[in-house]
Amino acid sequence: MHVTRVTPAAAETxxxxxxxxxxxxxxxxxxxxxxxxxxxxxxxxxxxxxxxALKERDLRDIGLTPAEAWALARKPLWRR
Length: 80
Prior knowledge:
This protein is mainly α. The chain has a domain at 54-80. The protein contains five helices and no strands. Helix 3 runs antiparallel to helix 5 (66-73). The longest helix is centred in the middle third of the chain and has 21 residues, at 33-53. The protein is elongated, with a radius of gyration of 27 Å.
């Protein structure tokens, strides 16, 4: 490794440390499979809850009968 000495005049021309960290943000905490799985399950649960809250007219607009909406909303969360 080669180390050079920086004079005070040359140090003023270097970029401040804040500019370097802004250009290269530090990585956040690693996301493993558990948070991703949990986020997926929670979003599916919310979508299915919203599906149950739709009126019959709204269901007709998206091409579903109330029985089909009920069946879709009652599926286990691990099934799409």
